[in-house]
Specification:
Helix content: 25-40%
Radius of gyration: 23 Å
Largest sheet: 11 strands, mixed
Distance between the termini: 55 Å
Number of helices: 17
Structural class: alpha/beta
Number of strands: 17
Length: about 575
């Protein structure tokens, strides 16, 4: 049995090398002329998305949390240091699975948070709309098994479910978050968190459910059910960790007891020191600014320090558990002989979650939830009936040199850790080229030798992809994907940004809800930054560069017009 598996592995690896050489241009034959057997040997795709992971949380990006499996994948693969996403989760996911800007793909804003002037408008449906052809649909049409496990957040109904968008098997949390144990704790309101097992809404979870473990094992189950038929698979593993509420098994938390007793300021300095020593970033980086409302660690009482450090212990446990179970999945792929033939892409969906612990979120009813749902005694922190997050001070350590965090269009909200790993490509390299989440779908399609349907898909009109394949970059055929004239923009809840080359402008709307979130006295106007000189966005140079500012405002208008952006009249979200 082992010798047969070894022979199959050799056959598969030889085909992978053959495909790789074709991609590199070493053969003149077209990939389209491959035999059906060779077509079956197209690479598997494993797309891993984690929720609210900070830029510096992994060891490979400067963190102290125990993440050996992810670190090994990153360090033997291709680390992407300049990878951009949306400020929050579902807009990022919409772009990831469509290759199209979120304002066109249905997630111009978060589900149920449209302002009056956005309601009933194309691009603001609150689900992955049918103006796009979804990645799993296309891959399934072209001979791939398609599996999903974890967070969906791209449609609540059956006709917008993972199954409806091409996943042949799926176990999905439909909402944007939930508790991590079996009690189905919702993050908003008092109803149970909604889960779909394929197309069926379920009433309960297994008694031993722990999200990170369960999602991983479910995906392994799906892959295992068909791996003998020689069809490649596309597996989308979308964890909810380390999204709040912070919850983890006691044994996981115990590994980190005492590790954060020195506080968040020491953690920030330690991570920045290590990040710089890794030489990941091509520009000189400096410390970001703390928020005006941030509390100095030494100003906390002993009890406050005790509770705050435990929040970070729980968070670290959740990240460490992600690493453990991803390691189990990698081991499984090795055991069945599919590891060398699997392209792995890992990313976080946005920056670290930085809402202050005393923020009421009254519009969501979270304050009332905190009063009724949970036991927040020190001993119970991190348990299934606790509902906690770690606050802006720890989040600052998570985002490292970047400004702000989740929900913002500054670097801390939209620059995420990411890496690619595929045996025929791996050269242990670091890519500093600017890459956007919209670029991933075209990359995966090119890797799979699958063409996007263009403007027509299943008798409906769809948008062509806006992203650009990064496969030439991964193959070292080019130094960058987007040139200095490329325009990339962002907008969510009225916060806006546009980047053109090394230049970037951001704008944060004037409203009391946002006043605690920025240290700049005059933050409600467009600000201009040169990311080459100032990657941490510390020095607004708009007034001294009027010509460049005018050029960037023109770039913003181009981005806004192209993507049908509707600035909200009122803001509910982050």
């Amino acid at each position: 049995m082992k010798s047969k598996m070894h022979l199959n592995r050799i056959k598969k690896l030889s085909v992978i090398i053959f495909l790789f050489l074709i991609t590199m241009g070493c053969y003149e034959q077209s990939i389209d002329k491959l035999t059906s057997h060779q077509d079956k040997m197209r690479p598997n795709i494993l797309l891993i998305v984690v929720d609210d992971l900070g830029y510096t949380d992994l060891g490979a990006f400067g963190g102290e949390i125990d993440t050996p499996n992810l670190d090994d994948l990153a360090k033997t693969g291709i680390t992407l240091t300049n990878y951009y996403v949306a400020p929050t989760c579902s807009p990022t996911r919409a772009m990831l699975l469509s290759g199209v800007d979120n304002h066109l793909a249905g997630m111009g804003t978060m589900y149920n948070e449209q302002s009056d002037n956005q309601k009933n408008k194309v691009g603001y449906e609150g689900f992955l709309n049918f103006q796009v052809a979804a990645l799993p649909n296309i891959l399934k049409d072209n001979g791939y098994h398609t599996y999903m496990s974890g967070k969906w957040h791209l449609g609540y109904d059956e006709d917008t479910s993972p199954k409806a968008r091409g996943f042949e098997r799926s176990f999905a949390l439909v909402a944007g978050g939930a508790g991590h144990f079996s009690n189905m704790m919702s993050i908003l309101g008092t109803k149970k968190a909604p889960y779909r097992d394929d197309d069926i809404l379920i009433d309960s979870l297994p008694g031993d459910f722990y999200s990170t473990e369960f999602y991983t094992n479910k995906l392994i189950e799906y892959i295992d059910s068909n791996h003998q038929d020689d069809k490649p698979f596309f597996a989308y593993l979308a964890y909810t960790a380390p999204h709040w509420p912070l919850q983890a098994p006691i044994k996981s938390i115990e590994k980190y007891i005492g590790n954060y007793d020195d506080g968040y300021e020491v953690l920030y300095e330690n991570r920045m020191t290590k990040l710089k020593s890794l030489n990941l970033l091509e520009h000189e980086i400096v410390n970001s600014q703390p928020l005006l409302e941030d509390k100095a660690w030494d100003s906390l009482s002993d009890e406050e320090k005790k509770r705050s450090s435990k929040l970070m212990e729980i968070y670290a446990a959740m990240v460490s558990d992600l690493d453990q179970y991803i390691g189990n999945l990698v081991s499984y792929l090795k055991d069945i002989g599919e590891y060398e033939n699997t392209f792995i892409f890992f990313m976080s969906d946005n920056g670290a979650e930085g809402h202050p612990l005393d923020q009421s979120f009254s519009e969501y009813g979270i304050a009332a939830k905190l009063e009724t749902c949970c036991d927040h005694s020190y001993e119970n922190m991190g348990a299934a009936d606790s509902y906690l997050w770690y606050g802006p001070e720890w989040a600052r350590a998570g985002v490292g040199p970047w400004r702000r965090f989740k929900g913002f269009t500054s670097e801390g909200g939209i620059r995420a850790p990411a890496f690619a790993h595929f045996s025929p490509l791996n050269n242990a390299s670091v890519k500093n080229s600017m890459i956007h989440v919209k670029d991933i779908m075209p990359t995966l399609l090119e890797l799979a030798n699958v063409k996007h349907p263009g403007s027509q898909y299943k008798e409906r009109e769809v948008m062509t992809m806006q992203g650009t394949s990064i496969l030439p970059l991964l193959l070292n055929k080019v130094d960058h994907v987007h040139d200095q004239h490329h325009i990339e923009g962002w907008e969510l809840f009225g916060k806006t940004a546009v980047r053109k080359g090394d230049w970037k402008i951001i704008q944060e709307p004037k409203d009391n809800y946002f006043s605690w979130q920025t240290p700049l006295a005059d933050n409600y106007k467009w600000q201009l930054f040169n990311l080459l000189d100032d990657p941490s966005e510390l020095n607004d140079i708009a007034e001294t560069n009027p010509t460049k500012m005018s050029e960037m405002l023109d770039a913003w208008q181009s981005y806004r017009d192209e993507n049908g952006i509707i600035i909200p009249e009122s803001v509910m979200g982050f």
